[in-house]
Design goal:
Blueprint: H1 13-61, H2 66-72, H3 77-87, H4 92-99, H5 103-117, H6 122-136
Length: 140
């Protein structure tokens, strides 16, 4: 049996309401997707800026000269950022998250730092850096 066509301009109340709700839900989904993209951009920018801010803060906390000492030790900018994060007591996971790299990359970078500083691990790297920064002037 065929259903009669609605008259022009006539709407099924439930159907129209469902359509409006569907349109609103689609708009909400689009808005949430846009917010998620914006959030990702903000997080990416903060991760990019954070190492520089943290490095400056560490330099101030331990008496300045951190960047110059890192350069004199032959450390790259990324190695210096990683060492600065290490001085704050951050774990490899946190360092990786803050620098936007994997934990494995942090381990590799720290290995390069250890070789360049002539130390065998995390504690020695921190000790050597802090000793230099407080005036003992350990030459790399």
């Amino acid at each position: 049996m065929a259903h009669p066509s609605p008259e022009p301009g006539a709407h099924d109340g439930d159907g129209a309401q469902r359509g409006e709700v569907l349109v609103l839900l689609l708009r909400v989904i689009d808005s949430l997707a846009a917010l998620e993209r914006a959030h990702e951009q903000v997080v990416h920018e903060l991760r990019r800026l954070h190492p520089a801010i943290e490095r400056d803060a560490v330099g101030e906390q331990v008496g300045g000269g951190f960047t110059d000492w890192c350069r004199a030790s032959g450390l790259t900018e990324r190695e210096s950022q990683t060492l600065a994060a290490l001085l704050t007591g951050a774990t490899n996971r946190k360092i990786g998250r803050d620098l936007g790299v994997t934990e494995r990359t942090v381990k590799n970078t720290l290995h390069s730092v250890y070789v360049k500083l002539g130390v065998s691990g995390r504690s020695e790297a921190i000790s050597r850096t802090m000793a230099h920064m407080v005036g003992r002037k350990i030459v790399p």
